[in-house]
Design brief:
Oligomer: single chain
Shape: elongated
Largest sheet: 5 strands, antiparallel
Radius of gyration: 44 Å
Organism: Silvibacterium dinghuense
Protein name: Type II and III secretion system protein
Keywords: Signal
GO cellular component, one term: type II protein secretion system complex
Low-confidence stretches: 1-53, 215-273
Mean pLDDT: 70
Strand content: over 45%
InterPro entries: Bact_Secretion_Sys_Channel, GspD/PilQ, T2SS-T3SS_pil_N, T2SS/T3SS_dom
Length: 481
């Protein structure tokens, strides 16, 4: 019986031996196949310069913001990420791991399958500098911008034409890294500066109507024209002894830079945009029709805001609250006067895109209020804001900001004016209505900054300057003599 059982066992072992050998071979093939698939998934990966993988680790390289898949032969059981701030890993399927790069740095990834076998990876994540260089070339063509990486920080160097280009390069690099060092320099010879000449004028409309003058009823190259009928049908003007004529119908560009002469000094006609409008304003100012409130000239860099304020600040009390029956009052200040804010941008074609906001404010005591014995005046304000596109040297005007006021003037004879009934005969009341209009004339000009290569000519003095040392020596000689 034992012999029979032993023979059966030997026969069974002989029968099982081929299957066991096949299973061992299949397991060895599966393990080698799994390693081959893992290696194939990292063919495109490049080892980082600053990392060294362990003997069993596979070094892989990724770009921040990108993702990749790692495939395994056997079903996955679990994964581990050593630095979640650099990469994130998810099991996308039973045999697939999705790895995403989040930030610059190095992290280990360990993958286990159901058999308990593990495969470690050393993944280095770096910034996509090539993509940034390509984006800068498309956004700022022709600019010399160098991009380098320094430990997760992007360093921009080189030279650009304008400060706006430098800011644009910094913002674009900020999309690739939160740590950006912008070392770009601006070519000072290419920096555009804008000089703004502003005339803020207040016109008395009553006097202007009595004057028979409409300041903005113009056409063609005319700066101003009268509304009376005192002109002849043909206007004659002279320049350097020669005369020319033109019809007064308004199409008189052929007169050129000439000022027609008339019998009345209060009626004149100006032609050509090359004439300085200041001449017109000065003439009206001498007639007490207008007053120039301010004539600021401000220069700023293209794209930068500039402001001007001519006035002051007046104090006014502000009630803070009541404590223990006592009122707490603080003093604050409010600016008033002539103010202008403007931001110019020089376009590629040479035009100036101008955002300008003039404001004129004054203290108004007719509408003052009283708080705890304090008389606080109101502020009358006239403000405008606009955006225009002009060429260098062109002017534009803002008008229509009216201020209408009515004042009462009383006069009386002392003593007699207080007599009942008959006292009205010794009193008089005069109502004065005034209407003023604010006119803002703005002229932007593109100016170039002075560079070291600019030829600065010395002033031509009628008497040559005296050397201080020579002067002292001659003075000592005179004293010794």
């Amino acid at each position: 019986m034992k012999k029979y059982a032993g023979g059966v066992m030997k026969s069974f072992e002989a029968l099982l031996l081929p299957f066991m050998l096949t299973a061992v071979a299949a397991g060895a093939w599966a393990q080698s196949r799994t390693q081959a698939v893992l290696s194939a998934s990292a063919v495109a990966a490049q080892p980082a310069d600053f990392t060294s993988a362990a003997p069993n680790e596979q070094a892989m390289h990724m770009v921040v913001g990108r993702s990749m898949y790692i495939n395994t032969r056997h079903r996955l059981s679990r994964i581990y990420v050593s630095n979640p701030g650099v990469i994130s890993a998810y099991v996308a399927s039973p045999n697939q791991v999705l790895v995403s790069s989040k930030d610059y740095g190095v992290s280990s990834l360990v993958v286990w399958d159901e058999s308990g076998e593990s495969q470690p990876y050393l993944i280095s994540s770096d910034l996509d500098l090539e993509q940034l260089r390509t984006s800068l070339q498309h956004s700022l063509p022709g600019e010399n911008v160098d991009v380098q990486g320094d430990g997760g920080r992007i360093v921009l160097s080189g030279m650009v034409a304008t400060p706006e280009d430098s800011d644009a390069a910094g913002k674009l690099a900020g999309m690739y890294s939160k740590n950006v060092f912008n070392a770009l320099s601006v070519n000072s010879a290419a920096v555009k500066q804008v000089r703004l000449k502003v005339r803020i004028v207040e016109v008395d409309r009553q006097k202007l109507m009595q004057f028979g003058f409409n300041f903005f009823n113009v056409g063609g190259n005319t700066l101003a024209q009268t509304t009376t009928t005192q002109f002849p049908s043909t206007l004659t003007a002279s320049t350097n002894g020669s005369s020319s004529s033109s019809s007064s119908s308004g199409t008189s560009a052929s007169v050129g830079n000439k000022i027609a002469s008339y019998t009345s000094p209060l009626n004149f006609l100006l032609y050509s945009s090359s004439l300085n409008i200041g001449a017109t304003l000065q003439d009206l100012e001498t007639k007490q029709i207008l007053q120039i409130l301010a004539e600021p000239t401000i220069t700023t860099i293209s794209g930068k805001e500039a402001s001007f304020l001519s006035g002051g600040e007046f104090p006014f009390p502000v009630v803070q609250g009541t404590t223990g029956g006592l009122t707490s009052i603080s003093i604050q200040f409010r600016p008033y006067g002539v103010k202008i804010d403007f931001t110019p941008v020089v376009n590629v074609d040479g035009t100036i895109q101008l955002k300008v906001a003039p404001e004129v404010s004054a203290l108004d005591y007719t509408n003052e209020v009283s708080i705890d014995g304090y008389d606080i005046p109101a502020i009358s304000t006239r403000r405008a804001e606009t955006q225009v596109v002009l060429r260098s040297g062109q002017s534009f005007a803002i008008s229509g900001l009216l201020d209408r006021r009515t004042t009462d003037a009383y006069s009386r004879t002392p003593g007699f004016s207080s007599i009942p009934i008959l006292g009205q005969l010794f009193k008089s009341k005069n109502l004065n209505h005034s209407t003023t209009e604010l006119i803002v004339i703005v002229t932007p000009e593109v100016v170039n900054p002075i560079t070291e290569s600019s030829n600065m000519s010395e002033p031509n003095l009628p008497v040559p300057s005296i050397d201080s040392k020579q002067f002292d020596e001659s003075l000592q000689k005179k004293k010794s003599n």
